[in-house]
From TrEMBL:
Record-linked InterPro entries: SAM-dependent_MTases_sf
SUPFAM superfamilies: S-adenosyl-L-methionine-dependent methyltransferases
Superkingdom as given in the UniProt entry: Bacteria
Name the record gives this protein: SAM-dependent methyltransferase
Organism: Leptolinea tardivitalis
Length: 213
C-alpha cells in the first residue's frame, strides 16, 4: 500500500486544532498531562548516552519544543537543538517560546534537516484518523528509516502499544506491535536495539543505538 493514501493535511489540522484549543501545554500536543509527558520524555532521553559531552539533537515532530525544555530542566541541554514539525503553528510557537536562545532552531520542512547525534520522536504516530492500519504501518517504517538516516549515534521513538486494554482502544489511534518494530530496527538499522515497555503507560519506547563509543 502506498503512503500517498495518507492525507497529512488532516493530521496537520488535527494538531493545529489541539494547539488552538489548549495552547502551549501537553494537551496542545495531545498528551493528557505533564506527568505522562515527562515519563515519556525520560524514556526517550535514555538514547543520550554521553550527555556530559556537547551533542546535537533533532526532535522529529517537536511540537513547540517541550522536549528541549525537559532536557534543560534535567541539566543536559543540547549544544544544538533542531525542532521539526509539519504544523506551522507549532513551529511558530516554538520559535516564539525559545526566541534568542543560542543553538535552538525550528523547521517545518524535512528536506534540509541536518544529521544530528540523536533523533527523537514522541507521539508522532499515535493519531492515524481513518487511515488503514497497514498503510499507517508503512508510513511508520518510512519515517523511522528517515530518522535513522538523520541520526549519527542513535534515535528513540515511542508508540501506543497493541497490548492496551481492548475496551479503551480507539479506531483513530495506531497501536503498534513492539516485536514487529523491534525486528525491523534490528534487521535494518543496528544490532543494538532496546524496547522499553515497563513504565506503566499504554505505550513503549524503542532505542536504536548506532554507536557505543
Amino acid at each position: 500500500m502506498s503512503t500517498d493514501k495518507i492525507d497529512m493535511n488532516d493530521i496537520r489540522s488535527y494538531f493545529a486544532e489541539k494547539l488552538e484549543q489548549h495552547g502551549a501545554t501537553p494537551r496542545g500536543v495531545d498528551w493528557n498531562s505533564n506527568g505522562a509527558q515527562d515519563t515519556r520524555f525520560m524514556q526517550l532521553a535514555r538514547i543520550i548516552d554521553r550527555p556530559e559531552r556537547p551533542y546535537s539533537l533533532l526532535d522529529y515532530g517537536s511540537g513547540f519544543g517541550s522536549f528541549y525544555d525537559y532536557l534543560v530542566n534535567q541539566g543536559v541541554r543540547p549544544q544544538r537543538y533542531v525542532g521539526f514539525d509539519i504544523v506551522e503553528g507549532m513551529v511558530v510557537k516554538g520559535r516564539e517560546l525559545h526566541a534568542g536562545i543560542e543553538g535552538v532552531e525550528f523547521s517545518q520542512t524535512d528536506d534540509n534537516l541536518p544529521v544530528c547525534d540523536y533523533v527523537v520522536a514522541s507521539g508522532i504516530f499515535n493519531i492515524k484518523l481513518d487511515t488503514e492500519y497497514d498503510t499507517w504501518t508503512e508510513y511508520v517504517i518510512k519515517t523511522i528509516t528517515r530518522m535513522n538516516d538523520l541520526a549519527d549515534r542513535g534515535f528513540s521513538v515511542n508508540f501506543l502499544t497493541k497490548y492496551s486494554d481492548a475496551d479503551h482502544m480507539r479506531p483513530d489511534l495506531y497501536y503498534a506491535d513492539p516485536g514487529y518494530l523491534f525486528d525491523i530496527c534490528k534487521r535494518r538499522f543496528s544490532r543494538n536495539v532496546a524496547i522499553l515497555h515497563d513504565y506503566d503507560l499504554y505505550d513503549f519506547t524503542l532505542l536504536v543505538r548506532k554507536k557505543l563509543d
